Amino acid sequence: MEKVDLRILKSKTALQNAFIELLNTKNFSKITVDELCKLASVNRMTFYNHYHDKYDLFDDIIKKIRESIVEKFLEYAQNDFTIANAPNLIYKISELVLDECIIHKDIILSLKNDDEASLIQFIISNALSDSITRVLQLLITKEDKINKIPLLSVFLTGGISSLIIHWLENDKNYKREDLNILIKNLITHCYQILIF
User: Fold this and answer.
1) Burial class (CB in 10 A: 0-12, 13-18, 19+), 50
2) How far apart are CA 133 and CA 105, in angstroms?
3) What single-letter DSSP state applies at residue 145?
4) Distance in angstroms (rounded) separating the CA atoms of residues 196 and 194
5) From CA 144, how far away is CA 52, in angstroms rounded?
6) Residue pLDDT, tens place only, 55-67
7) Which CB contacts under 8 angstroms, 24+ apart, belong to 129-132?
8) H, E, C per residue of 118-137
9) pLDDT by residue (tens digit) across 60-99?
10) Which among 61, 48, 50, 53 has a CA at the least distance from the CA of 20?
11) Is the torsion defined by CA of 26, 123, 33, 68 positive or negative?
12) How far apart are CA 159 and CA 186, in angstroms?
């Protein structure tokens, strides 16, 4: 196992926390490296030792969130990774992504309001797509069904990510349980079409 330099970890964590704090009060496009460094109590050289720019820092934050989702999913899936349970596994992925979106709701809505809507759609879709595709590839082995996996993955990813974004923007109009039921039904029906 690779040894982690605690100074690097500390400065990266401080920069990530500062970035998240600034996103709660400012538009993404208005955040500067100087502000990040000042809030994180690190100098610019330290920032540029770790990141190329604020987009690189943001990407690092997204990777940590995605790793957290994958880790939680693998922990959940290890006991019942079967074709019969595929819809539940895909639903669990969407539930974990939704949980992270709720935790970071202010940031997501801030980016959406900052004309970064396509970035938000990309981030959420990316978190869903890789996991959904992997689950389907591992569970579906019939030759005539394998070629449909990318289509189903794109459809589910687009639908689920759009539903999550819409719900975040309008969560006072819909209960989370209603969203969960809708997503679960969407997954179940799509999966039934694929395997039959």
Assistant:
1) middle
2) 25
3) H
4) 6
5) 45
6) 899 888 888 887 8
7) 129/153, 129/154, 129/157, 131/69, 131/70, 131/73, 131/93, 132/90, 132/93, 132/156, 132/157
8) HHHHHHHHHHHHHHHHHHHH
9) 888 888 788 878 877 777 776 776 777 888 888 888 888 8
10) 61
11) positive
12) 9
d(CA 115, CA 165): 14
What percent of the chain is helix, strand and coil (3-state, nearest 5)? Answer: 80, 0, 20
| Closest among 16, 12, 26, 13 to 114, alpha carbons compared | 26
How far is CA 124 from its chain centroid? 4
Closest CA to 102 of 60, 163, 161, 164: 164
- Contact partners, residue 141, CB within 8 Å, separation at least 6: none
Distance CA 161, CA 23 (A): 21
Angle at 115 between CA 160 and CA 61, to 5 degrees: 65
Nearest to 31 by CA among 108, 124, 109, 111: 111
